[in-house]
């Protein structure tokens, strides 16, 4: 009997024996698997789709195949991206479910968004336990199934620390974020690896409270589901809602980094904002002497004259960045230090302080543009101090919660959302602002919970997140060359959906510039998100190189007599030389059992397949007693010869690709030191 037929019989038997409510199950096939075939097999009439929900207290697995079904194939909507839409409807109650599916054949990737619509004028029955993905994966052989994931931001040295969990029978694993922000204490990106060399990257797109649940079901199968953590609601007449998006990227290889690197390329090429049809390049930025002088904080004492002087000083020393970054504290009230006011307790006074900035920001913007740079300004529109102008004048658009000193601007209110879009858009246009920076320093789930109608758990969260996406989409449409920086107390709103619209240029609020933590953050995030940024305050090599990446903000004190502009220029050049490699393939070179200690080395490799070149970045931390470690490179061709050059000394040597794969010694004679090796043919 044909082996494929035998495999099919085994899979069908597994379905019938193990699939509760007809849970969707997918078998992994070889590299020849086409994602469009996977979609056709899982989204079709008479098939249990790869999601589930409970409606009228009944699980969808018992009725979804009886609902009317329709599908629409929209074809290639942009280069390399195809779109199908599937609908199921209950003819009796007029409740319908729509699954908007996009797929990417080059990457064997698929994403979908699930929506519900009540087509009746009457309130619907309750919808609950919505699992936007609800599947089992069966692998080609028995063995370990390993879940690779990462910590969220807390913030700490361990932000985005990579983790792995070997799944075992009877020990389900569930993870979710805290406080209503999508990467607060958890991170919605995963790699499911099997010893058969088959795996999938799995990502959740929801900038609120998601959950993910994993469980090993047999020696060669895993079950997992994900969605909103808190959703149990009826829909009003003719009401619609959307739920989280889901992404799967399938990979086949003995090395799981094949999957991670395919996902990195997928994110860069298809899931990040584009400018002129190309993925946006996230900028090198600088500030206006952050926090200067005491007791001012952030930019509460900045003036137009001082800003212009700083711009001229950066021009004088040939250190003009791609973006001048004005952060918090520019608005009225923020600099009333004598009244215990600061940047944080005056949000909601979104009026430029004309005593410090006569004429608004336009004179600063004009000087920045004349210098050849862009201008980015910080806002925090969702958190509104209760006694602020917005808190008083726009109170009808505010949500309150017990024991708080701030309101939540209700993005779920259509009138409020429309007003905010125009306000921020006009503000940017009138003041010559190129890039918009949005912060969000508050817990939010309590506001949603305390303002929900009876029987409508989750609606407040859904409407707010829908409004957030609509707001960002509005700005990107109005300013097609803009970048939206997404902060949220550092990187606490990082998820598959937010990455489509925004850039994490300040990925953590952990101890500004502390290098060991920053090395850990780069190492962990790089498995899933290639495009992130952070800050640096010092220009010694160990500290500066800890902030290498696709984006950085130089928080240098260019007016400080102890600072060296020559060293700043060296750092600037090195960053620009290294940045292109952070858009390429990533390989960790040292273990990540505990990356936060001071007694280890940390090293990684970035490889560019297009020209077979790359870099090695390594750090010997302060308490490490090892002067030398051995690393094994990936991606280099066994049969080629490479010249490896030390960027610091200029010394070079030749090794074959086979030798580099078997082992390369890295030596740093002094603790708290770093190296960069560049290699190529």
Quickly list its features.
4 domains; Beta-galactosidase, Chain A, domain 5; 22% helix; nine-stranded antiparallel sheet; 681 residues; alpha+beta
Task: Kindly describe this structure.
It is a single chain. The protein is α+β, with helices and mostly antiparallel strands. The chain folds into four domains: 3-275, alpha-galactosidase from lactobacil brevis (Beta-galactosidase, Chain A, domain 5, Distorted Sandwich); 287-378 and 537-583, no CATH class; 380-482, no CATH class; 585-680, Golgi alpha-mannosidase II (Immunoglobulin-like, Sandwich), CATH 2.60.40.1180. Helix content is 22%, strand content 31%. The chain contains 14 helices and 39 strands. The strands form eight sheets. The protein has a nine-stranded antiparallel beta sheet with strand order 4-5-6-7-18-14-13-10-11, sandwiched between helices. A seven-stranded parallel beta sheet has the order 29-27-23-22-21-31-30. A six-stranded antiparallel beta sheet has the order 32-33-34-39-36-37. A hairpin with a 2-residue loop joins strand 2 (52-55) and strand 3. Helix 7 (414-430) packs parallel to helix 9 (459-478). The longest helix is centred in the C-terminal third of the chain and has 20 residues, at 459-478. The chain is globular, with a radius of gyration of 26 Å. Mean pLDDT is 94; it is low at 1-20.
Provide a short characterization of the protein structure.
The chain has 681 residues and is an alpha+beta fold. It has 14 helices and 39 strands. The protein has a nine-stranded antiparallel β-sheet with strand order 4-5-6-7-18-14-13-10-11, with helices on both faces. A seven-stranded parallel β-sheet has the order 29-27-23-22-21-31-30.
